[in-house]
Amino acid sequence: MAAVYENQSTDFYCRGDKNFRSQLHCSPHIHYHIEIVQILEGETVGFADTEEVYLEAGDIFIAFPDQVHYFLTQKPERYRLFIVSPDLTPEFRTIFTNQVPRSACIKGAGLDPEIDALTKTLFTFTGHHHTGGDPYRDAVIRGCLLALFGKLLPLMSLAAPRVGDSRAVREIVGYCSEHFAEELSLEVLEDELHLSKYYISHLFSGKLGIRFNDYINSLRISHACRLLRREDMQITEIAETVGFSTLRTFNRAFVKFRGITPSEFRREGSARSDGASLLPIYYIKGKQQCPNTMLSQLPTSKN
User: What would the pLDDT profile of 76-104 be if each residue is shown by its tens digit?
Assistant: First the structure.
């Protein structure tokens, strides 16, 4: 099952599990948007900043803007995932931009018939059979989101954003997301963010579970996958655009994270089930991780 709605400002995105073929497992990521996951079946562990929550059927996970979050699948899930810009619901923007949930998990909220109906409507309404020509489509989406947040927010305990490691991780991941195509190193981050490079290295290994260089390369390869779907760019040009100094290092990193060469990925094109919107598969703390969506890499095809 899958559905995608995307306007020019990428305010809203949703997808499903594609009949268990697309798990929630993903690398730590951060974005300006709200991320909501309704678990329909299966089990997963969700992380939001330093919090770890166990999620099962009926639970809803929500990460507010600028919260580092990711998932570790325990049993293959069925789910509905939504990524929403705070700008779509300005009535709640102050809450989303100035507070964070004390817990990212709302136990059993997805079992509420009204909440389930709203997520189902959003998911169904943004499916393939609604892709064109409806002048009221955006209004329906916004109305459903307002009603959904109106139901979810009273079920949550909110607080001011945490400080310390979590804030540093948000700053680091946010900077890397904006500058991954440039020459990046721990020394560069130390100068730009005024944080010790040893502290940054510790956060990557301890909080994010990945080496700094691997994280940067994972961002580069994800962006490269989008560009490879275009026919107007040579692979050497793509390698340089995403931040690799040589074609050899680009090819080596691509095979490491995707399991095939850039040329093979381009030949397979839209036939690939993962899509360019997904983060690369890589290893966190010895376990293979499966891809997930980053809003900065929304798909251009309706997979």
Answer: 999 999 999 888 899 998 999 889 999 99
- What is the rounded CA–CA span in Å between residue 242 and residue 225? 10
Q: Are 180 and 223 in contact (CB under 8 A)?
A: yes
Token pair 């340089």: residue = 240
With DSSP H G I counted as helix, E B as strand and the rest as coil, what are the percentages for the chain, rounded to 5? 45, 20, 35
The domains of the chain, with CATH numbers, are 12-159 (2.60.120.280), 165-283 (1.10.10.60)
User: Are the C-beta atoms of 13 and 6 separated by less than 8 Å?
Assistant: yes
Which ranges of 86-205 would DSSP assign to H, the alpha helix? Answer: 93-98, 113-125, 137-152, 165-179, 186-193, 197-203
Distance CA 303, CA 128 (A): 9
Contact present, 8 and 14 (Cβ < 8 Å): no
How large a percentage of the chain has pLDDT more than 70? Answer: 81
Element (H, E) at 264: helix 262-268
- The answer to whether 45 and 82 are in contact (CB under 8 A) is no
**Residue 82 DSSP SS3:** strand
Q: How far is CA 12 from the centre of its chain?
A: 12
pLDDT given at position 163: 67
Residue 105's CB is within 10 A of a number of other CB atoms, namely: 22
Q: What angle do CA 244, 299, 71 make, to 5 degrees?
A: 80
What does DSSP say about strands 51-56 and 34-48: parallel, antiparallel, or unpaired? antiparallel
Tokens of 29: 């990521």
Entry pTM: 0.65
Mean pLDDT across 281-302:
31
